[in-house]
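Hey, resending since the last one bounced:
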Amino acid sequence: SSSRSKRGSTSTHNSSRKGSSVLSVQQKSRKELVLEKLREQLIKAKAFTIKKTLEVYIPIRQFFYNLIHPEYSAVTDVYVLMFLADTVDFIIIVFGFWAFGKHSAAADITSSLSEDQVPEAFLVMVLIQFGTMVVDRALYLRKTVMGKVIFQVILVFGIHFWMFFILPGVTDRRFSQNTVAQLWYFVKCIYFGLSAYQIRCGYPTRVLGNFLTKSYNYVNLFLFQGFRLVPFLTELRAVMDWVWTDTTLSLSSWICVEDIYAHIFVLKCWRESEKRYPQPRGQKKKKVVKYGMGGMIVMLLICIVWFPLLFMSLIKSVAGVVNRPLDVSITITLGGFQPVFTMSAQQTHLKTPSSSDYNAFLKSYTNTPAALQALEAFAYEDVTIANLEGDSSSLWTISPPSRKKLIEDLRISKEFQITIAWNIRRNATLGAKDEDALDKHTVQLDNATQSELINLLNGTLKKPVKIENAIPCFIKAPSNSNAKPIEALYEDGKYRSITLTLEKKEIDAMEVEWWTVNMSRPERGIPAENMNGIVLYVFSNKVSPPSLGFLAGYGIMGLYASVVLVIGKFVREFFSGISHSIMFEELPNVDRILKLCTDIFLVRETGELELEEDLYAKLIFLYRSPETMIKWTREKTH
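The structure tokens again:
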């Protein structure tokens, strides 16, 4: 019974423990039910996200892996076409840069560069385009398909973001309204297609020489020579190739091999042309060849020699622009004192004579050959009649001490001078070398004239004072700053006389003074409107058009020094020093040397760098040994 009671108590205790545990489970599920469900949902969401990400990532990864590691691909080389597409884009940027700026729609690159200003839009676009061309060359030489893929992705996203988002905001023009940008984008899309094709097929395992040296004909020859004439292109290509190609050669040795290969290729083209068009022995050259090529060279040399004279003559007589004066001014000074007379003529006071008046003026010099010779280069539209009023435009405000000193100098000086200066201002934008053309004439006064001026200054003389041989009325205004009188138009070499009068007037209880000047009219002058004051006849030389001003500005002697002599130096190099290069120019057969150069390229690409050194040493020894060179370049005997 005692054992039965113990079992009963034990079962009662166990049942109570089970009840309490069930109760605790029920209490825990109520508190954490929401958290457990949320945790389960997060785990499911994480698994779903990972699954979807892998579904997207694995195909993309497999796509790029298949691109870089294809099972089979016909290796091709479209780098030349990609380079041409980039070159076209570069040209579009240079000649249509205004389409990539906001306020440059009416500008052109030449006017901006002539003012030493580089537009920011032009600079950024050119540097980016040039930088992509350099990177593309580096990837091509390293044959890095992975790098090409990354570069392609960056370019695609970057250029589309630039073209459709940034550029419209910069230019305030939608892409559909920007024709130049559309053309640039079209060529760039061609580049993207070529790049994608290059990535799909893979880079070639061997890059041997220039693509223009694959055939030996006139087309490849002239294209290759033109390629080498582009400034810095050959040098930049050689240095970049040396930087991104595995080699044991130094930079100087690399350039030496490139130069030898280029020279041998040119010789090979000429030898092939001689085989296609052989010249029979003992037969003289045909007249078509002699007069065709030789005659053209003779005409070219003659044109170069006489180019400055022909250019300066035709540019002004045929396409010259009349540069009429905008302002003609006269200043008269007594000794070194304040000017006594200042006057200028502008706008309506500057007239052009009629054709009949100018022809009558020429006829008056029929018996004066020197005058006709001086006027031969001028037409009626080149002449300007400047009518200057006789009253000075400024008051004579000389101080009493200076006035006293002037009278004293006139009384005691035996070499007192009066100076007449003139200034002719033109439109500098039309091509004149200087905006102002000026000169002066000095007259030595005699004692009688000095005495009359003293009396005029003291107020004891009322009549005008006459000064002989004072002012030249016919003035030549060339494009430079020297406005000299035309001496052949003056009788006995004497200029026109003038009369000086000192006018006085009291204004507001204050006496003011000014000078009046009148000039005697020339007997053979062109009729002028006013008969008082001063009349100047300005003969203006025609100037070259602004578009050709960069050449005409040098002048005849400048063109000879800067153009003819420089061209003559280069021409002389073709006609002299030939004897020093006979050993390397007159090679009958260059096939073995050409093969040696291509072998150097081949072993370099295959990684046989020790063999590259040996072949380079063999090439250098060949050029150092005339006897070996003769053996290597003999014609093949069958």
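The first helix runs from residue 2 to 68.

Sorry for the duplicate.
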